[in-house]
Amino acid sequence: LQAPPLRWRENRSRDTRENARMTFDMLQADGIRRIALVTHAWHMPRSQAIFSKAGFDVVPAPTQYATNFRLTLLDFRPYAPALDDGSHFFHEIIGLAWYRLKSALH
Predict the structure, then answer these.
(1) Torsion, CA 43, CA 10, CA 30, CA 6, rounded to 10
(2) pTM listed for this prediction
(3) SS3 for 77?
(4) Contacts of 2 (CB under 8 A, 6+ apart)
(5) What does the H/E/C string look like for 6-30?
(6) CB 26 within 8 A of CB 8
(7) What does the pLDDT read at residue 65?
(8) Which of 88, 1, 59, 32 is nearest to 10 (CA)?
(9) Pairing of strands 57-63, 34-40
(10) Helices 16-28 and 81-105, packing angle to 10 deg
(11) Is 36:59 a contact under the CB 8 Å cutoff?
């Protein structure tokens, strides 16, 4: 099975906001406004807000959820990898606050 050829590629952005703007400019030339936004579930709320603000009609397609939705008693024991999840959580909360602050100032 061969993948179709890549038609669009945005590789100049330095952050999510730049990626959304540059991608919108690139796809707008072909009349594309509705996109499936694929990113890690941790990043989706921030990414969806940024891509929507850039002008896209976003269909979220999150990946790599951190939970299995079935809790057992073992899920409440101390577990070192949970620190990594907490780090991602706070990174995204700070990122959301940062983008909202930047939007309010512009």
Answers:
(1) -100
(2) 0.68
(3) coil
(4) none
(5) CCCCCCCCCCHHHHHHHHHHHHHCC
(6) yes
(7) 75
(8) 32
(9) parallel
(10) 60
(11) yes
- CB of 38 within 8 A of CB of 85? no
- The alpha-helical segments, DSSP class H, found in the chain are 16-28, 44-54, 81-105
Q: What are 98's two structure tokens?
A: 């940062």
In this structure, how many other beta carbons lie within 10 angstroms of the beta carbon of residue 43?
19
Indicate the residue type of 27: L
The pLDDT profile of the chain, 106 residues, written as one tens digit per residue, is: 888 898 999 999 999 999 999 999 999 999 999 999 999 888 899 999 999 999 999 999 999 876 666 777 777 777 777 777 778 788 888 888 888 888 888 7
